[in-house]
Every structure is written in structure tokens, then in C-alpha cells.
TrEMBL record, chain A:
One Pfam family, short name: BPD_transp_2
Protein name listed in UniProt: ABC transporter permease
Protein's membrane topology: Multi-pass membrane protein
Entries under PANTHER family matching the protein: ABC TRANSPORTER, PERMEASE PROTEIN, GUANOSINE ABC TRANSPORTER PERMEASE PROTEIN NUPP
Intracellular or extracellular location(s): Cell membrane
Transmembrane intervals: 20-41, 61-83, 95-116, 122-142, 149-167, 199-217, 238-261, 273-292, 299-320, 326-347
Naturally occurring in which organism (per UniProt): Hoeflea poritis
Main location: membrane
Signal peptide location: none
Annotated keywords: Cell membrane, Membrane, Transmembrane, Transmembrane helix
Origin: domain of life: Bacteria
TrEMBL record, chain B:
PANTHER family: GUANOSINE ABC TRANSPORTER PERMEASE PROTEIN NUPQ, SUGAR ABC TRANSPORTER INTEGRAL MEMBRANE PROTEIN-RELATED
Protein name (record): ABC transporter permease
Keywords: Cell membrane, Membrane, Transmembrane, Transmembrane helix
Native organism: Hoeflea poritis
One Pfam family this sequence matches: BPD_transp_2
Membrane topology type: Multi-pass membrane protein
């Protein structure tokens, strides 16, 4: 759309257009949040300023923000990689949870003597299992046209059920209460970057994933073809791109990345798997991908933004007794308005009239 | 005795899923996959508890819950039909948004995190005369009957007629199944879809009211426990047919009611809980495989 509009326009206008497009859902969300805050008699500007300070104010708060953003880097890319090919994969959440469990499993069952090799083993196993997990709906879609939205949504609940059973049964830690596996060996824990903050090397892996995604999407034939499938299926198959192969490719890649994300969260953040492993990282990742318009830089910024909201939300609740749920209100609004075409359509019409 | 209890519990646990599924299937026949049934159930349950406590009347509470659900549904529909939002993402977003709003109000107005316990909440009345409990096997289930369960099952058996023989029923089906025909007939697809989404919200709201007012009389953030998605699974498995869907709901209700008993038999409840979702996956696979074969046979 931006391409079509840019013919005969100044590049400045085009950038302005893009910027508004990217910021639109977030602006709406801030307005909604501001109305809610006004309704309870708080000054929204004060609250936003406090939230900003709590997420970027000091080195420690920045570390907390980036730490909260880490899983979102993975889930954002895992979602975007499918969305840009027109595959509506909503199963990143389930794949992340499965990956987390697999990584933790490797981390506490294999002998500690393996030392640092535990980490690649755990990441590899998590990526493998999560890839197979999403290969199933990918195959069903590619071969039998089984609606991927419903199949991946259902698989999420299956993932919660299986992992919930395992951490309460066969994999339950003997020493620490309910719903958790044993801790992984110390050698399998990802090093912390800025102690005492929980920011860990998983963040760097996440950034690497985002960069690799950006290179793949913009600079490789395979990434280009995948985007083409998303834009026009008939054209793509006419020029010889295999649609089923593309669907399977993006679903497997999405699974691999979700698995890496789960492994990073298990080995870096929790050092184990626990019931309620993910407070909806997969769904927030969807908001991140939509806000970032499937673009690598956009995804990075989106992940940091939602990480900031999450880390600021907790402390804002502590200091100003504004409920943490304001974060959910913002997230939900962003998701809804990221897919609304109201603004862009009217802009297009306005252009057409001139 | 155990049989009596299982039947009664299954019937009670079926009702909320059944109500939401009836709404959802009409919505899907109208061409909208409503992934936000859970949000509307949650909103319905929340409103039901508050209104029931304020007015002390179950009927007003149930009606307000339904209207609240319908209102959320209508607004949701506008986002889809007028602003061309993707219904899946918008639906998932609405689930997050509604949960956020409710949590916010809960925290701010009632100063509680998670659970809302209010005085004088009136529960749904059990209206059957006392002697029915003496009937063997189904006696307990009959004596536990309340208006919403009865209403849900009346809906199951009238909905096929309404969809097949009334003007609005035909409009809904035409909009979902043959949009071109609907347009050619001069039906406003958007308005019909808005109606069907509001309808789904209305019924999900009723389902939420049942969850809150059938026996516990309080609201909790985790009250729906994904039942909106179970309802989605039910009408997907029941292929949008009211009676088939109702039977599937009954099966899910039965699974829900027997989970705890099966645990003592060595079957973990968490795994039993995945059965509805696995059933949908299997149903999707079979349907996809059939279509595939049909296409392969056709020239």
C-alpha cells in the first residue's frame, strides 16, 4: 500500500505515512488508557511520565525492561514470520511453553558433568520439539487446507494440558512444593548480564534472532518468496513458488524460534519450568508483530515497548496504586487497533480524491 | 447415588458452554468466527454478580449480563464489519482488553485482586417441586434445574427452526454461506453480522451469568477457565448444527464433571481437560481429508 501511495509523492510524506501507521494503534491505546485514568481521577500525563521513568529512568530499570522484553523478541518474530506469509499461526504460545519444558527437562536430567554443552543441547532439543509441534498444523494446512487458526489455537490448550500434567506428575520437583520442575543444573543456566537484574544472555540471543529474521526477510530469495505468498497467493504459484512448501517452512521456522524463546526463558529467567510459565508471551508477541508490521526493527521496538509496559506496570501499582491491569487494557487496545484499517482506508480515499 | 450426582453435575456444567456455543454457532453461520466468547462470558459473569447484589433479583442480573455481553459483542462486531479488522486478532485482543478492564475495575472500585465477593447475591432459583428429587437416577438433576438451563435447552431445540424458517435466520445463513446471494437480495451483510455477533454476546453473557449465579454467587477472574474456547470447540465439532453441538457440549460437561472422579482412577485431570481440543483437531483433520479426497476425485 505504501509502495502504491509513494508514486509521485515526496519520500518525506511517505515516511510520515509509515510513522503514523506504526504509531496509530499505540496512540489509540494511550488515549484509551488516559480516559480510564481520568475516570479514576489520576492525571494521565503524570502516570505516563512515572511509567516512562520506571521503565527507562535508570540503568537498573532499563535492564528490567529489556529482561521483560526478551521472550517477546522471540514470540514477536515467531508470529511475524507466519503472518507475513498470510499464515494465521496463533500457536506460538503453546510452542513456547512446550519448548520451555523441553529445555528445562534437558537442563535437569542430563548429568551436570556435561557442563556448558548442556545449553546448546537444551536449546536444540527445545527448538526441535517446538518445530515438530508447529509442523503438525503446518502440514495439515499445506496438505489438507485445515484452518490453521483453529488448529493452532486448540494446540495451545493441548500444550497447557500436557505441560500442566507433567509438572504436577512425572516431572514434579521433589523438594519444592507444587507445579514446578527441579531447578536446572548451574552449568545450564544462562549467565546474567547485569546482576542483580534478571537480564540474561537470552536477550542477546533474542536480538540475534531478530537480526537474522530481518536479513532473511529482506535479503534472501526464500524470505522474499515467503512475503510474496502473503501478498498474493495466485501470483506466487504462477511464478513457480510452492505454496505448501512455504507454509511448512514458515511454520517450522516459527516453531524453532518459539522453542528457542521457551528455552531462553526457562534457562535464563526461571531456571526451571513451572505451571503458568508464560503469562501470554505468545499473544503479546502477536501484538508486537502487528505493531511492528512484521518488520525486524519494528518488532524490536514493539518488544521493548511491551517489555517497558510490563516492568513499569508492576512498580506503578506499587507506588501509585493504579491497578496493573492498565497494561492489559493497553495491550488489548493495541491488538485490536493494529488490525483496524479505518485510518489507512480513509487516508487512501482522501489520496484518491485529490 | 454416584450416577445421580454425575448426571446432575454434568447438566449444570454443560449449561454455560451450551449457551455460549449456541451464540457462537449462529455467529459462525453468519460468517464470523467469534474467538472472543470467553471475554463476553467473563463480562456477563461480572455484571451478573454486581447487579444481583445491588438489586437482589436474579432475573434483572441475568438480563443485565446478557445485555452487557450483547453490547460488547456489538462493539466488537463494528470493529470487524466497519473497520475491516481481522476477526481473529481483534478477538484475541478483546479477550485481553475485557480481562484488563474487569481486573482494573475489580482492583479500583472493589479493592480486591481476583475475586469479587458481594453481599446479598441472589442465586438462580431452583423451581422444581420437592417431590422430583424422589425420582430415581434423574431426580437430583431435575431438582437442581434452574431457569437458565431450561432456557438453554429450549434454545437448542428452537434454534434449528428459527434458522431454517424465519426471515432473520435465513438472512444470517445467507450472509455467512453465500454472501453474493445475500447482497443480490439486498440484505445488508454488515447489519446481519452485527446482529449475529450481538446475539453471540447475548448468549455468552447468559453463560457467564450461569457460571456466577448457578451455585457459587461470586466472581473470579479465572471463572470462565477457557470455557469460551471450549464452546468454540463444541460448535466446530458440531459443525454449527444446534442439536449436534448441544450433544458435544453435554459430552464436554460430562468430562468436566467426571474429571475429579477420574483422577482417583489414575487418569490425570489436566490430560482429560485436553480432550475437547484434541477432538476438534481430529474433526478438522477428518473434514480436511474428506474435502481433499472429494477434490481429488472431481475433475
Amino acid at each position: 500500500m505504501a509502495e502504491a501511495a509513494s508514486i509521485g509523492r515526496s519520500p518525506l510524506m511517505d515516511w510520515f505515512d509509515k510513522g503514523i501507521g506504526l504509531a496509530f494503534p499505540f496512540i489509540v491505546a494511550l488515549v484509551v488508557a488516559a480516559v480510564v485514568l481520568l475516570a479514576i481521577g489520576e492525571n494521565p500525563l503524570d502516570v505516563f511520565a512515572l511509567m516512562f521513568a520506571e521503565s527507562f529512568g535508570t540503568q537498573r530499570r532499563i535492564a528490567a525492561t529489556l529482561s521483560a522484553a526478551t521472550p517477546l523478541l522471540f514470540t514477536g518474530v515467531a508470529t511475524a514470520i507466519c503472518f507475513r506469509s498470510g499464515v494465521f499461526n496463533v500457536g506460538v504460545e503453546g510452542a513456547l511453553v512446550i519448548g520451555g519444558l523441553c529445555a528445562a527437562f534437558i537442563g535437569f536430567t542430563l548429568p551436570a558433568a556435561l557442563g556448558l554443552t548442556l545449553i546448546p543441547l537444551a536449546f536444540g532439543f527445545a527448538a526441535l520439539v517446538s518445530a515438530i509441534w508447529l509442523l503438525v498444523p503446518g502440514f495439515l494446512l499445506a496438505r489438507y487446507e485445515v484452518d490453521e487458526v483453529v488448529s493452532t489455537l486448540m494446540l495451545n490448550f493441548v500444550a497447557f494440558g500436557i505441560t500442566g500434567y507433567l509438572v504436577n506428575g512425572p516431572l514434579l520437583s521433589e523438594i519444592s512444593g507444587n507445579n514446578v520442575t527441579p531447578l536446572v543444573h548451574e552449568a545450564a543456566q544462562l549467565p546474567r548480564l547485569m546482576p542483580p537484574s534478571t537480564l540474561h544472555t537470552g536477550f542477546l540471543i533474542g536480538v540475534l534472532v531478530v537480526i537474522l529474521y530481518g536479513v532473511w526477510a529482506r535479503r534472501t530469495p526464500s524470505g522474499f518468496e515467503a512475503a510474496l505468498v502473503g501478498q498474493n497467493k495466485r501470483f506466487s504459484s504462477a511464478v513457480g513458488i510452492s505454496i505448501p512448501a512455504t507454509i511448512i517452512l514458515v511454520m517450522v521456522l516459527s516453531g524453532v524460534i518459539s522453542g528457542l524463546g521457551g528455552a531462553s526463558h526457562a534457562l535464563g529467567q526461571l531456571h526451571r519450568f513451572a505451571d503458568g510459565f508464560s503469562p501470554g508471551y505468545g499473544f503479546t508477541g502477536m501484538a508486537v508483530a502487528l505493531l511492528g508490521r512484521n518488520n525486524a526493527i519494528g518488532i524490536f521496538l514493539g518488544a521493548v515497548l511491551f517489555g517497558a509496559l510490563a516492568s513499569a506496570g508492576t512498580t506503578v501499582q506499587l507506588f501509585s496504586d493504579i491497578p496493573l491491569d492498565i497494561v492489559n487494557i493497553i495491550e488489548g487496545t493495541v491488538m485490536i487497533f493494529a488490525v483496524v484499517e479505518l485510518g489507512r482506508i480513509s487516508l487512501k480515499r482522501w489520496r484518491a480524491r485529490r | 447415588m454416584i450416577v445421580d450426582q454425575v448426571i446432575a453435575a454434568s447438566l449444570t456444567l454443560t449449561t454455560p458452554i451450551l449457551l455460549a456455543a449456541m451464540g457462537g454457532l449462529v455467529n459462525r453461520q453468519g460468517g464470523i468466527v467469534n474467538i472472543a466468547l470467553d471475554a463476553k462470558m467473563l463480562a456477563g459473569a461480572f455484571v451478573a454478580v454486581i447487579v444481583s447484589s445491588m438489586t437482589g433479583g436474579w432475573f434483572v442480573a441475568v438480563l443485565s449480563a446478557a445485555v452487557a455481553g450483547a453490547l460488547v459483542g456489538y462493539l466488537f462486531s463494528l470493529v470487524i464489519t466497519r473497520a475491516n479488522a481481522n476477526m481473529i486478532v481483534a478477538g484475541l485482543g478483546l479477550n485481553v482488553l475485557v480481562a484488563g478492564f474487569i481486573g482494573f475495575i475489580l482492583n479500583w472500585v472493589y479493592d480486591s485482586s481476583g475475586t469479587l465477593r458481594l453481599p446479598d447475591v441472589q442465586l438462580l432459583p431452583k423451581f422444581m417441586p420437592d417431590f422430583v428429587s424422589g425420582i430415581p437416577v434423574v431426580g437430583l438433576a431435575l431438582s437442581e434445574l434452574e431457569p437458565l438451563t431450561v432456557f438453554a435447552w429450549i434454545t437448542v431445540f428452537t434454534l434449528p427452526f428459527l434458522l431454517a424458517n424465519t426471515r432473520i435466520g435465513l438472512w444470517v445463513r445467507a450472509t455467512g454461506n453465500a454472501p453474493q446471494v445475500a447482497r443480490a437480495m439486498g440484505i445488508s451483510g454488515r447489519n446481519v453480522q452485527d446482529f449475529s455477533t450481538a446475539f453471540a454476546g447475548f448468549f455468552s453473557g447468559l453463560g457467564g451469568a450461569h457460571l456466577a449465579l448457578a451455585s457459587i454467587g461470586l466472581f473470579n477472574e479465572g471463572l470462565t477457565a477457557g470455557r469460551g474456547f471450549i464452546a468454540l470447540a463444541a460448535f466446530y465439532f458440531g459443525r454449527d448444527r444446534p442439536v449436534t453441538t448441544a450433544l458435544v457440549c453435554l459430552l464436554f460437561g460430562f468430562l468436566d464433571a467426571t474429571q475429579i472422579r477420574m483422577q482417583t482412577a489414575g487418569l490425570p485431570p489436566k490430560l482429560i481437560g485436553t480432550i475437547p481440543y484434541l477432538m476438534v483437531l481430529v474433526a478438522l483433520c477428518i473434514a480436511g481429508w474428506r474435502n481433499h479426497r472429494r477434490k481429488a476425485v472431481a475433475p
